[in-house]
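re: that complex we talked abt at group meeting.

here r the seqs, copy pasted straight from the sheet so there may be weird spacing, ignore it
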Amino acid sequence: MTDTSLPAAANATSAAKIRSGAPANPLALIRRALVYLLLSIAAFVSVFPFFWMIVGATNKSADIIRGKNGFGTELFNNAATFFTQVDALRVFWNSAFIAVVGTALTLVISSLAGYGFEMFRSRVRERLFALLLLLLSIPFAALMVPLFVMFSQAKLVNTYTAVILPTVASIFIIFYFRQATKAFPSELRDAAKIDGLKEWQIFFFVYMPVMRSTYAAATIIIFMANWNNYLWPLIVLQTAENKTITLIVSALTSAYTPDYGMTLFATVLATLPTLIIFFLLQRRFVEGMLGAVK
Amino acid sequence: MAQARLDRREQLTGWAFIAPALILLGLFMIYPIIWSLWMSFQVGKGMNLSFGGLANIERLTKDPVFLRALGNTFTFFIIQVPIMIVLALLFAVALNDSTLRFRGLFRTAIFLPCVTSLIAYSTIFKSMFATDGIINQGLMALHIIGSPIAWFSDPFWAKVVIILAITWRWTGYNMIFYLAALQNVDRSIYEAARIDGVPAWARFTHITIPMLKPVILFTTVISTIGTLQLFDEVYNFTAGTGGPSDSTLTLSLYIYNLTFKFMPSFGYSATVSWVIVVLVGILSFLQFLVARDRRRP
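got the structure back, here u go
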């Protein structure tokens, strides 16, 4: 960059113009317009399938695969078909039980470990932690066969326990809590010790309340993962009365000629809980994801 | 904590805090990994296993279905991951501009696909890509295609739908990581570059990309692991067949079929799963290598 002094000056003034709100040069305007166009297309493509899902839930299957793009009058028929074919109460109970109990257990066990790794450092435990991070790259496909054999030998196939137990100690969440614990003020722990609190009391009565926004973000991540989990539940939940909503939607879609109106109605129901949580806790969610990467 | 050494009591407390997680991980992760490694040397059907040495690896090289699945998985990886990473970077850079209007709206919209389950969104896509469906109608109305594409019965287009679907689901997810990292980049660097007359494209390649290198590496590795394990979408699109004629069969789906659909051959499916482990290892290593080389110009 030696011979650019002239254009540099020109650019600098145009940049100053943009910032001061004065009319900019045409090139900058075109670039701006392109950015808006790109983002608008991206936003449209991202949101359209949601719109399509809701529209689809109000239409007949035949109209959906013919591409009818407008609200229909079949919502109640689709709902009726769904509720007669699927024991919805049971299915949602299965999903909710697995997601809620799984999330609660994961939060406690993984945050205990994250806190333990950060607060009580020793050479052995540091090595162990490095080993755990290495294990993060092991794909689930490598575990599922032995896991299935283990659970069938323990006669636990087709139980909630089999779905929940392997997900409870999550390396990713342990790592997440360890990173977050670095921001936990150690004076609080010292003060609590002077007050005579035991280590477990410090964890439950000082650490947990102070770190509640970390817990909130982790809750969303874990809840979504549990609610949407597919492959492992598909393997271990074998009878209809134990299946989750995710498995049911998949079964409805895989039918030889799927009833799309009813299936998209089921999809709306399956997506609603995570969508609501997302909009309620959007800020926390993004913060949580950001926290996980730092 | 430049700490005084932990005393005995604190040592024990430290172990107590991590013990529940360690026991569970040992039981449901480390033990199965070792078991599956051992199993990959076993041959036989069902639980009648006997030691077969390298027989399974030999079988891999002669198994056309495995080679097909390996090729498909690799195709998805090679095409999908770069497209998604580039798109996510572009969106993140565009959204990082504080003078942009509707930033929050754009960000939420592009991120929204992440809240759907893999099953929910593949159901939606399956209905949109029906032969007489909305996508074909839209493309025909725009005169991009003349006659409807049979998305799911054509081996090439079936792959295209899967790539489009995964890109739709995960681009916003990756974008969030880049947005986070961009917030840590010192704005005065850009300001200085702009005043020196560095054009936007050069600012992107010479400032943004090097600054984001660690995060790009992280997301690339995560996406590699995810794509090599591709299962839910394909299973849902093709009712578990990986069709038409195995053109969308992935390694994970093949493992599932070997174990739970056909007469189970646990040994051989364990071998196929170790192929994924080895591939993830090699690809992550290569990605680290590429990232390191560029840092020293």
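couple things i noticed - Chain B touches chain A through 104 residues (CB under 8 Å). Strands of chain B lie at 42-43, 50-51.
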